[in-house]
Amino acid sequence: MSGKMMEPKQSKKVERVFEQFNKLGEDRGSKLVFPKLQEKYHELDRKEKESLFSLLNSKLELEKEELYPILEELSSSEGDSLSWPAQLQRLRAKVQSPRLKIFQRIAKNPGGIRFLLDLREDLINSRKTTALDVAALDYDLTSFLEMLFQEGFLYLEEITLDSPYRQIEIIKNRDMVHPMTSLEEMGQRLGKDRRCFALYHRLLPLEPIVFIEVALTQSLIRNISEIVGPKSKDVKKKDVDTAIFYSINNTQNGLAGLGLGKMLIVRVVDFLRSENDRIKTFATLSPMPGFWERYLRPILDGDDEPFLLKREDIPGFFSKRGRGKILQAVGSSDDSVEGFCRALKSLLSGTEWPKNAELAKQLKGPMVKIAYQYIARETNLKGKPLNPVAGFHLGNGALVNEKCVNFLANTSTKGLRDSCGIMVNYIYTPNWLTQIRRSFRWLERLEIKGIFGR
User: Fold this and answer.
1) pLDDT band at residue 260 under the 50/70/90 scheme
2) Fewer beta carbons under 10 A from the terminal one: N or C of the chain?
3) 74: in domain
4) Residue 231: predicted pLDDT
5) What is the pLDDT of residues 382-440, one digit of tens each?
6) Which of 105, 127, 149 marks a domain boundary?
7) Which comes out higher in pLDDT, residue 371 or 189?
């Protein structure tokens, strides 16, 4: 293991944490070493953690000299000899990352899995905000967590009104899509036609990894107030033909990108179909986070270089009458491209415009088209959808078209500021479950707990 030299100018705190990682790699009694590592790691600030990540990436590695003997043995061996499989096995054992052995020893300790999740969350945040090159460290940690969280350690549990208070409270506090202010509000989301399912890890049984809230409805729902607002009446089971996924929350940021949300949807779809074979449509009612702050508003300001849509394109979405109504609403007569975009920005920056029926009518068509451009055509530098929610559902195999974009579907302050009140139905097609099953061959082994009869 390469741990002989320290990076120059590392703080003593970083060196001490790195030393604890090294001790774990050398198997110096993990039960004694891990508590010290845990304590010292949480004392580091953001910059110090970035320095530590660089060390873990570059110094906890094999030396070239360690590989020469086995490589020479392989190069001089006959590939069809009886000893070839044994030689390959020695190579595989030799080239295994030393970091994986450390992660395994950490995970065996009480609180070890939680520590690894925190470590990866910090690593993800560092990679978002810096040019830190720690790809090898991230790969090893991600691979270990994928193995740990997808091989028989998971179980699905339905959260009901009969569930322990702590479980219900955690779901209430962790819903970032449609936040709740009281347990009574959470109670309204649990019932015969309002369901909640959570995925748990056997070694973390007190808090969910990811959870999903589902509304069982008659036909597609296009406005969130029909789901989380006061219900006029329950939908009868015989009339239910649609399941709407309206809130999916990953409570462990360290597990981002591991596909657990997709797996949760698959299992919930499977269960709901077995419970009620009349359910034929599975869809979401999803927000568009970033649509206003990170997409449309910058374009209206002229900061449109990263996007396919440009500021000069915006007026073309609106009729002459519509442009006039918007200019009139903000008291402007400047109908140039810059003038109109400035007026539209001023209008959409507020939260009162939906109350003006005529104005909303003029905005509806253009805003739906702009929103569809955002979710279906705009991509990031990696070629994936710019909107993370679109990326998640389209990556899962869901379909979307312009008719799935719903104007003024969420007129709460949060909904207007995040998405200009727009929400999207992503549709999961009938053959989707079969296709996804092929990528989760172990799915049938997933245990379901706490499913109460209805």
Assistant:
1) confident
2) C
3) no
4) 67
5) 899 999 999 999 988 899 999 999 999 999 999 999 999 999 999 998 676 666 655 55
6) 149
7) 371
Look at the chain and count its residues. Answer: 454
- Quote the pTM value: 0.80
Query: Does the residue 86 lie in any domain?
Result: no
User: What residues are labeled active site?
Assistant: 286, 393
Tokens of 48: 């110090």
The CATH code of the domain that includes 107 is 1.20.140.90
Q: Is residue 76 part of a domain?
A: no
CB neighbours of residue 210 within 10 Å: 23
The answer to whether the beta carbons of residues 281 and 426 sit under 8 Å apart is: no
Position 70 pLDDT exceeds 80: no
Domain identity same for 310 and 278: no
List, for residues 323-369, the tens digit of each pLDDT value.
Answer: 999 999 999 999 999 999 999 999 999 999 999 999 999 999 999 99
Place of tokens 């009901």: 160
* Residue closest to 198 by CA, chosen among 256, 145, 271, 249: 249
Q: Are residues 187 and 300 in the same domain?
A: no
pLDDT for residue 448 = 47
- Residue 30 tokens read as 């993990």
| Sequence letter at residue 339 | G
Residues 262 and 321 in one domain: no
pLDDT of residue 413: 94
| Structural domain containing residue 309 | 292-424
- Choosing from 120, 149, 178, the residue where a domain stops is 149
Under 8 Å between Cβ of 248 and 212 = yes
Shared domain check, 394 and 321: yes
Asked whether the predicted pLDDT for residue 84 surpasses 50, the reply is yes
Compute the chain's Rg from CA coordinates.
26
CATH number at residue 220: 3.40.630.150
| Pair 110, 20 in one domain | yes
Integer Cα distance of 378 and 298 in angstroms? 14
* Residue linked to tokens 């915006």: 314
Q: How many domains does the chain have?
A: 3
**Listed residue (157, 259, 248, 142) closest to 200, CA to CA:** 157
